[in-house]
Protein: Pectinesterase
Organism: Nepenthes gracilis
Amino acid sequence: MASICTSSFIYAFMLVILNLLSNFALQATSSPRHLSSVASNSTKRRHRYVEPSCCRHISVNIGGARGFVSVQAAVDSVPENNTERVIIHISAGYYIEKVVVPASKPYITFQGDGRDTTVIEWHDRASDRGPNGQQLRTYRTASVSVFADYFSARNISFKNTAPAPLPGMEGWQAAAFRISGDKAYFLGCGFYGAQDTLCDDAGRHYFKHCYIEGSIDFIFGNGRSMYKECEIHSIATRFGSIAAQDRNWPEEKTGFAFLNCRVTGTGPVYVGRALGHYSRIVYSYTYFGDLVAHGGWDDWDHTAGTNKTVFFGVYKCWGPGAEAVKGGSWARELDYKSAHPFLAKSFVNGRHWIAPSDA
Ligand SMILES: *[C@@H]1O[C@H](CO)[C@@H](O)[C@H](O)[C@H]1NC(C)=O
Ligand SMILES: *[C@@H]1O[C@H](CO)[C@@H](O)[C@H](O)[C@H]1NC(C)=O
Ligand SMILES: *[C@@H]1O[C@H](CO)[C@@H](O)[C@H](O)[C@H]1NC(C)=O
Ligand SMILES: *[C@@H]1O[C@H](CO)[C@@H](O)[C@H](O)[C@H]1NC(C)=O
């Protein structure tokens, strides 16, 4: 009897404590300002990089010798709301499938055997119809779509193999990859498509040593992203454009920062277009081949004043196309002070989610 009484007393006591804690947690999330004076030091601590607990390993092998035969099956096997990093090793091969990583599955890594040997590809176009009979439209054409936070991919390529549109054809947008989750990291990846290749939709992203190929607006969306030491390759045959950034309000922190990249291939291309009225695109220390269109940048047919609200800049760029990028009144050659925010991983708050050796 006595022990039952004691344990139910302890149980009741724990419930009270739990209630107190959860009330406190609710207050903390609903009114963060209330805690901000206390939080300043712990905020600093949070900014330091913390390696997530590591790791569960899963393999995908198209030969089927061992593990899953499709990437989607491997993703499906990850439990919802996982808190541990799950590394999905994808053996060399062409995986012809459409893959979705849902928002409920964070901390997934796609580890390929090499950008030239492990490839996930599909072939949807914007005018194709989805299961509900509606047209897919651009964002839903991606061969691989990631809605989860803390996704990463290494040494793997993503392709959309729909053929390039002929001039004037509508509805041929065909994305290879869409990233809509926050804090995503890409190393040594390839992105291949004919039009609208990489949908850099939303969240903070870091691309390093990647290769991105396309013809029209082939890096687009409202992400806040850094592209470091990447090759941006145009396959435009008549006219093309590289980055179309969709920032729409002056308060938004989104934008595309290209750092130490190489812009190669065929043109002429605009290097940036104002998809949103407050579009932000900066190229720093970047090489431009001889493919940049006269004027360099484009306003996406917005009327009045967009050329005063966009932030298009270049800083210490070089190569035969570098002069054209500075052309017109759209883009400015930045000084160090205004280029500075676009030159380091702090642009994407990298200090607390990118390992120092990965930056
Ligand atoms: C924050 O940290 C600094 C030194 O790291 C210390 O001097 C200061 O008292 C701390 N402030 C609070 C509110 O804990
Ligand atoms: C995962 O978390 C979400 C949101 O908190 C919740 O609605 C869902 O039921 C959870 N799923 C599982 C399997 O625990
Ligand atoms: C990725 O591939 C490169 C070159 O093929 C290789 O040097 C590197 O070790 C690979 N990295 C990972 C994480 O697989
Ligand atoms: C900028 O917009 C104004 C109208 O708001 C227009 O007169 C001017 O020509 C534009 N400049 C460029 C470079 O497009």
Remarks:
- The two ends are 61 Å apart (CA to CA).
